[in-house]
Amino acid sequence: MIQLTDQPLDYTAITESVRDPAAGAVVLFLGTVRDFTAGEQTQQLEYEAYQQMAESSLKQLADEASTHFPIVKAAIVHRLGVLQPGDVAVAIAVSTPHRAQAFAAGQWLIDTLKQRVPIWKREHYTDGRVLWQHPAAATDAAAGQSGGT
Amino acid sequence: MTPSGTVTVLFFAAAREAIGTAELSLPVSGPVILTEIQQQVLQRAIGLQPLQHRLLWAVNNQYALPATMIQPGDTVACFPPVSGG
């Protein structure tokens, strides 16, 4: 299951989708909207995607992960639109024969998704400010801290 | 391959807001490299210039390098560093 959606993520179904008798381990990662980041209070996050490229990019990510890890099944679902603190923005589920591989694959998938997949978030703070988040600003990694994952 | 035509350029997130439109259509007389498209875009959309050194570019849904060849009919995308997750 690889998709973008504007609906709340059904992480039970996403986890079920990767269960398999060949797997001895299933890891689920949920990226959730955090309320406070560096003392700033987030009211909501708004996610936008270049839908076509993001979908193909998520598929490439899953394919590439399979070349690095012995993945039995992987699922990646990212939510778009307006999210509140506590909401799930992204769910990644992965199954592998053994547990260390499942943790490593899940970590690689979320880290690489954040570097590569054309999705952006705009943070709305409780004081009324609205700012796009651009974590890849090489000169200022700290500026990339936001209420997301 | 069409000898001439247009290249569609899509803008996302802060890049879209900086230029006030989600899409531009650029006439081309044949195949061009991405650098030429970038120059045309930055000339037409001066609002993008403060962002220009951080912009990422894609051609037909794949990240592209300045020397990537673009054919008439291709879709280019221009956007700031990604921040999903």
Task: Name the descriptors.
heterodimer, A: 149 residues, alpha+beta, Aldehyde Oxidoreductase, domain 3, 5-stranded antiparallel beta sheet, 4-stranded mixed beta sheet, 3 helices, 28% helix, 36% strand, elongated, B: 85 residues, Ubiquitin-like (UB roll), 5-stranded mixed beta sheet, two-stranded antiparallel ribbon, 7 strands, globular
What does this structure look like?
Chain A has one domain: Molybdopterin biosynthesis MoaE subunit (Aldehyde Oxidoreductase, domain 3, Alpha-Beta Complex). Chain A is 28% helix and 36% strand. Chain A has helices at 11-16, 51-68, 99-116, and strands at residues 2-5, 25-32, 36-37, 40-49, 73-79, 81-83, 88-96, 119-125, 130-133. In chain A, strands 3, 4, 6, 8 and 9 form a five-stranded antiparallel sheet that branches. In chain A, strands 1-5-7-2 form a four-stranded mixed sheet. In chain A, strand 3 and strand 4 (40-49) form a beta hairpin. The longest helix of chain A has 18 residues, at 51-68. Chain A starts with a strand and ends in a 16-residue tail after the last strand. Mean pLDDT of chain A is 92; it is low at 137-144. Chain B is an alpha+beta fold. Chain B has one domain (5-79): Beta-grasp domain (Ubiquitin-like (UB roll), Roll), CATH 3.10.20.30. In chain B, the strands form two sheets. In chain B, strands 2-1-7-4-5 form a five-stranded mixed sheet. A two-stranded antiparallel ribbon of chain B has the order 3-6. In chain B, strand 4 and strand 5 form a beta hairpin. The model of chain B has no long low-confidence stretch (mean pLDDT 93). Classes of the chains: A alpha+beta (149), B alpha+beta (85). The A-B interface holds A 31, 47-50, 52-54, 56-57, 78, 89-90, 110, 113-122, 132-137, 144, 146, 148-149 and B 10, 12-14, 17, 54, 56, 58, 61-63, 77, 79-85.
